[in-house]
Design goal:
CATH class: Alpha Beta
CATH superfamily: P-loop containing nucleotide triphosphate hydrolases
CATH architecture: 3-Layer(aba) Sandwich
Distance between the termini: 16 Å
Bound molecules: shikimate-3-phosphate
CATH topology: Rossmann fold
Strand content: 5-15%
Number of strands: 5
Largest sheet: 5 strands, parallel
Order of helices and strands: EHEHHHEHEHHEH
Shape: globular
Number of domains: 1
Structural class: alpha/beta
Helix content: 40-55%
Number of helices: 8
Length: about 180
């Protein structure tokens, strides 16, 4: 009963790719940011502002811990979940973890749009390019450590989905989920 988990930087398309992978396999899709927002009744930005980052990271852990271990599910995570090692250990034990990699230019291009206002880690008024570079440099070794790399990007969920399904179709434990042509059953 595997989980398929997606990690990666903000704007790497984790939610949209996760949704597509789940749809292709006919599995339920869970999005940790969305589950946190539902549980708290507040936006991610409000949670950061009112309770701080450590509180948010703790919520991320609790949400992952409560996901159903016995079910086949696809999990899209927030970009900072790699900082929460016990949560990453759960994901890894439950099944494959894919890292949707993205270039800093793509993140910066997105950060000019209303998209950025929802991301407290990319606060207005700061030197965004420097901040994105620093966060990426800090996190890249962690993404690499925990995930199988897949080229990602907010605008490319279909390509990333194809890539992930192609990798899965070649893995023994996923054989029952795929037909002869390598397409999901
Ligand atoms: C964060 C990424 C966000 C969200 C929160 C913190 C991060 O998720 O969890 O704003 O630390 O990178 P997305 O990666 O979906 O933007």
């Amino acid at each position: 009963m595997p989980w398929i988990s997606l990690i990666g930087f903000m704007c790497s398309g984790k939610s949209s790719t996760g949704r597509l992978v789940a749809r292709q396999l006919g599995w339920p899709h869970f999005d940790t940011d969305r589950l946190i927002v539902e549980r708290e009744g507040k936006s991610v930005a409000e949670i950061f502002r009112e309770r701080g980052e450590a509180y948010f990271r703790d919520l991320e852990y609790r949400i992952v811990e409560e996901l159903p271990p016995e079910r086949d599910i696809v999990v899209s995570t927030g970009g900072g979940l790699v900082l929460v090692e016990p949560a990453m250990e759960i994901l890894r034990v439950q099944g494959p973890v894919f890292w949707l990699s993205v270039q800093p230019e793509d993140v910066l291009e997105r950060s000019q749009r209303p998209w950025a206002a929802k991301r407290p880690m990319l606060r207005e008024g700061e030197d965004l390019p420097a901040r994105v570079d620093r966060l990426m440099a800090e996190r890249e070794p962690l993404y690499r450590r925990w995930g199988t790399p897949v080229p990602g990007g907010f605008d490319h969920p279909r390509e990333a989905t194809r890539h992930i399904l192609s990798i899965l179709s070649k893995r023994d434990e996923f054989r029952p989920y795929f037909g002869f042509g390598g397409s999901p059953r």
